[in-house]
């Protein structure tokens, strides 16, 4: 599983469109579709109902999307935490005294 | 940031060695080192003190590792959740009635 695959399904869910999601992620639509198919194959779960317009997640897809959002949020939090460490906003060096 | 970069720093922290971590991850040691350097550059944080033998995380690295372990655990939980959905262990279809 790739982090960007989670970002792609979140983008499709947000945009309700593979084309707009691809634009949002700055990749081609075939690449986005392929990556999402790879994730669906890895999880053995169909995340989106492609027959509907606009595209909607399946019931199982909704549950996967909820967890994917949590993981991506944790990754963003790690990056934010690293920026805070770089700006020395956190008293990390005080931990040495613990 | 790549999920596998988080897995690599966890492996080095567990094995206390880049060589053993590479073996554990089934990749070459130069690939592992390069991926970890990429992550350190992305976060602008030195995660490991390479002067020490056995290798140890820096103080900032320990904080990053703690968060990385949380993210990787969430990813494993998502995969486990998908397996449960596939085995219909979760009453997902009942949600349609909600």
From TrEMBL, chains A, B:
Transmembrane feature ranges: none
InterPro entries for this protein: LysR_HTH_N, WH-like_DNA-bd_sf, WH_DNA-bd_sf
Top-level division of the source organism's lineage: Bacteria
Keyword list, A-Z: DNA-binding, Transcription, Transcription regulation
Residue stretches making up the HTH lysR-type domain: 1-58
Gene3D superfamilies cross-referenced by the UniProt entry: Winged helix-like DNA-binding domain superfamily/Winged helix DNA-binding domain (1.10.10.10)
Keyword hit for Metal-binding: no
Cellular component annotations (GO), alphabetically ordered: protein-DNA complex
GO molecular function (one): DNA-binding transcription factor activity
Family: Belongs to the LysR transcriptional regulatory family.
Protein name: LysR family transcriptional regulator
Origin species: Rudanella paleaurantiibacter
Lineage of source species: Bacteria, Pseudomonadati, Bacteroidota, Cytophagia, Cytophagales
């Amino acid at each position: 599983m790739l982090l960007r695959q989670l970002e792609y399904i979140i983008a499709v869910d947000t945009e309700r469109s593979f084309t707009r999601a691809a634009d949002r992620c700055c990749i081609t639509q075939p690449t986005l579709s392929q990556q999402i198919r790879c994730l669906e194959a890895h999880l053995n779960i169909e995340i989106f109902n492609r027959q509907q317009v606009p595209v909607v997640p399946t019931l199982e897809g909704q549950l996967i999307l909820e967890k994917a959002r949590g993981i991506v949020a944790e990754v963003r939090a790690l990056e934010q935490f690293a920026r805070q460490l770089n700006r020395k906003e956190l008293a990390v060096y005080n931990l040495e005294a613990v």
